[in-house]
Amino acid sequence: MHSYIYLASQSPRRQELLHQIGVKFELLLADASEDAESLETHIPNESALSYVERVTLAKLDAAEQRLLKRQLPWAPILCADTTVAIVLNDKEIILGKPEDETDAKRILQILSGKTHQVHTAIALLANQGSKPKVLVSSSSVTFKSLSDAEIDAYIASKEPMGKAGAYGIQGIAGSLISHISGSFSSIMGLPLYETAQLLQETGIKFSIQN
């Protein structure tokens, strides 16, 4: 039985969501010696579901090696990754984090007036050497038709930067989204239902457990 977990994510939203359900955690973040961005490289013709699961497991493996290298006390490790994808002309396109404001505008123009998918994978390693448990939550999000002025104003807020699909549903973008189907917390970056399932299976206590 562990009283806390390691969260291998620098996302403030994931941290906020864990706090929301009363999970005690410590951050286990990459340092300058790790090339964390390379883990998110796409493989040609890889589906968004395969991609998000593969990247999450790669992040989990890197986090385990990080913990061992730093000789930290063992506790379960939680990783997550969120991928945004849209089908255009019968072809699935993965929309990652924008490289700059021009790229953010390109992505938001693609999303404008359409429904896209958000896949968030979570992986939990309970014990050293054990097989990680992985779950994926998929949701659909529909943007209203966006004018260039709305896109430019949103980009000027800086909110799109560093986010898959160039938006954060918990922020200003919530006013641009006409419909969602699925899990709001998953679209934010950490599906609470699936996370609670893994925590229960691992014996980690959180708010609603006796």
TrEMBL record:
Q: Which reaction does it catalyse?
A: dTTP + H2O = dTMP + diphosphate + H(+); UTP + H2O = UMP + diphosphate + H(+)
Please state which protein family the record places this protein in.
Belongs to the Maf family. YhdE subfamily.
PANTHER family attached here? BIFUNCTIONAL DTTP/UTP PYROPHOSPHATASE/METHYLTRANSFERASE PROTEIN-RELATED, BIFUNCTIONAL DTTP_UTP PYROPHOSPHATASE_METHYLTRANSFERASE PROTEIN-RELATED
A single GO BP term for this record reads: nucleotide metabolic process
Spell out the residues of the site Important for substrate specificity.
13, 82, 170
Name listed for the protein in its UniProt record: dTTP/UTP pyrophosphatase
EC number assigned by the record: 3.6.1.9
Q: What class of enzyme is it?
A: hydrolase
Q: Which domain of life is it from?
A: Bacteria
Please give the function described in this protein's UniProt entry.
Nucleoside triphosphate pyrophosphatase that hydrolyzes dTTP and UTP. May have a dual role in cell division arrest and in preventing the incorporation of modified nucleotides into cellular nucleic acids.
Q: Name one GO molecular function term.
A: dTTP diphosphatase activity
Active site positions: 81
Where does this protein come from, organism-wise? Polynucleobacter victoriensis
Asked if Cytoplasm is a keyword of the record, the answer is yes
Q: Where in the cell is it found?
A: Cytoplasm
Q: Would the keyword Cytoplasm be found if you checked this record's keyword annotation? A: yes
Q: What UniProt keywords apply to this chain's record, in alphabetical order? A: Cytoplasm, Hydrolase, Nucleotide metabolism
